[in-house]
Task: structure prediction
Amino acid sequence: MSFSACDFVEPGTLKDAVARRAEGPCRVLAGGTDLGVEFRRQLPNDVTLLHVGLLPELCGISRGAGAITIGAAVTYGRILALGGASPEEVLLQDAARTIGSPGIMSMGTLGGNLATASPAADGALVLLALDAEIEVVASLGRRRIAVGEFIVGYRQTALRADELIERIQVPVLEGRRRGGAFRKYGNRDASILALVSAAAFLVFDDERRCTRARIALGAVAPTPVRAHAGEAVLEGGHCDPDALDEAANAALAAAAPIDDLRGSASYRCSILPVVVRDALDDAMRNASRARRAGA
Amino acid sequence: MTRPLSLEINGRRRTTLVAPHEFLLETLRGLGLTGAKEGCGEGECGSCTVLVDGQPVRACIVFSLAVAGRSVTTVEGLAATDTDLHPVQEAMAAAGAVQCGFCTPGFVVALAALLDHNPDPSDAEIRDALAGNLCRCTGYASIMAAARQAARITRERRRRETPAGRRLAQHETRP
Result:
């Protein structure tokens, strides 16, 4: 008879959690919507689960000067319950809404989405379009990492073995003419991983010139990626329909998709410009709405 | 290496021993609550839906120890008595929204959670609430009909629970 030397540890404070993390290998459990599936498929031997999902330090949301700060263990359900006070918050909600069924949204966390680092991660994708930063904590201190540098490869992050994700900081920009959009293309609407997804965030000045464009692509590379070439087409211009078409096509330069069970690489490449164009249209519409609401 | 786990299940405090990596579905079924079913075992199909503090969760991928001390409602806890069914149960039976029945407890619990905070949902809201529950038999039309009917029953029961509603009900039952 064999026993697996498993354990389940639930520290009461972040400090204790960090101390346990430093002691030796463990798997960090927040909502468990990824980890639970992984353990169901193959129960590992000899693994300690470090449950951080209920740590008060990781469950807060605050709107401060120029940023929304979201604790790593905040669930999608709680993000959806926010008021949508800024275009940035609305974009986070757009991703949270489609991430899974209500039974997933009540448990899954933004920090977990980042830690899993799936190329199709909806949360990480919008965080990339929002220039969010991840604050991680270890017993020796904290560091901040841009989302694009946090996810370093297919399901790989820059998180060290002694670190925990503490919170995510989303900059809230100034200016009334700004808006974001999230588009996910999958085989059905609910509970689905993206075949291709795109997030866009556009900022305009009072002359309706685009001062900042962010386009992030999901499920077309080993990690969520920015479409820099597409962004460059839009910045400084007026985002007329031709420019939007050009930006959507230019986004292909950032894509290096693979064939998998959800779809082929060539299919992904052929729908990507459509998904990006839809996201850009939505972001334009939301930017003009934001201006009216603010006026 | 088991651990004691205490939960409030369907209003009753229960304590049991669980393995560190045990899932809530196994724990509940081990306690004789076999309403929640294991379908896919990966959080996709919704057959194992139960409520934790009133929120729907996928019991097949929730670690039992992660919900220690919290309040769990399973399909067994919805009806007040065997004859006094929850509005969703009443409507599902009346609408014939059950064929093989395997997915039914998950649908019932997911709908009960929706109606608890929204007794007047639109079709789109019902669809969103049921988006993660798969049924291979019914084609969903009868389940949608049952959901609308359950919402009507819920609103009717709530109306009767208001003071004005109670007076009206007394008046109606007078000979």
